[in-house]
Design brief:
27% helix, 14 strands, 9 helices, 278 residues, alpha/beta, six-stranded mixed sheet
Length: 278
């Protein structure tokens, strides 16, 4: 009886934790994030990461999704994903989508409006979506069962950087903004449509590239913390010094997966949480 009770207690603690989290996986050059509500009521993943294939060389070995993010999900008692949101079609954001769809059951797959018309992307996911609902979204829609709202795109596209799905929502006492690889013009367009939009935590667009993170947008959003998801010694020079200067000018401290590894914010239902890095 004692052993059974201990097992049941451990099972409940692992599978129904009282805290929620927003986690930025350390997957190298790319994006992959977990947004989980307390008691595992809703599990959402934003992007899957993936390796870019330079020079046509065949990519071999286990993916980072298999080695890192899926292993993390299972260690947290997570066996399914309610919502998998793909910001756009670039390989460093969706390259491992097949492994995620195979590794855990995904109920709904959200993509920017128009990306289902991209044959290259559809070929990537087609073998794995028999039991997954595909949901194209645009600004004004919500991710089912979550506090996440879509504020971009405003028109259909094929999934380029300029078509990136941008999500905002409040979790753990903080306002969050996930921007994919959206450029500065797209950032300004969002504020033209949502002039009252503010955020405490900004996931910097395009891994800290100077093509994103417009200084006036950062100022208007009143950003308190920046998150940079980029690979160590990456060939693009991300994050760009111009972007880091923008953060410094606006007194915005930043976490960076290059330096901090995995970045996690854990919170309870009614309280501000705490940051952890690994």
């Amino acid at each position: 009886v004692i052993l059974g009770a201990a097992y049941l207690a451990c099972f409940l603690v692992i599978h129904f934790p009282t805290f929620g989290e927003v986690t930025f996986f350390d997957i190298g050059q790319g994006d992959s994030f977990l947004v989980r509500s307390p008691y595992n009521r809703q599990i959402t993943m934003i992007d899957t990461g993936g390796r870019v294939n330079f020079g046509g060389k065949k990519i071999t070995g286990r993916s980072r999704a298999q080695r890192i993010s899926i292993n993390y999900l299972k260690s947290q008692g997570i066996s399914h994903i309610d919502n998998l949101c793909l910001s756009h079609q670039d390989a460093d954001h969706v390259g491992d989508v097949g492994d995620v769809l195979q590794g855990v059951h995904v109920k709904r797959l959200y993509v920017p409006l128009g990306m289902t018309q991209n044959p290259q992307f559809m070929k990537r996911i087609q073998p794995y979506i028999q039991h997954t609902q595909i949901v194209p979204v645009q600004a004004g829609q919500q991710i089912i069962g979550t506090p996440l709202n879509v504020v971009h795109p405003f028109k259909p596209g094929l999934g380029t950087n300029e078509d990136s799905m941008v999500l905002t929502g409040q979790m753990g006492g903080l306002r969050w903004l996930f921007t994919g690889d959206l450029d500065q013009a797209g950032e300004r367009e969002i504020l033209n449509h949502y002039p009252a939009l503010r955020t405490d935590v900004l996931k910097l667009g395009h891994h800290g590239s100077k093509t994103s993170t417009n200084p006036e947008v950062v100022k208007q959003l009143q950003v308190k913390i920046g998150i940079i998801s980029a690979g160590r010694n990456n060939r693009y020079g991300h994050p760009n010094q111009e972007t880091l200067a923008t953060l410094a000018a606006n007194h915005v401290p930043a976490f960076n997966t290059q330096v901090n590894g995995m970045i996690r914010y854990r919170y309870t239902n009614h309280a501000t949480g705490r940051w952890q890095t690994f």
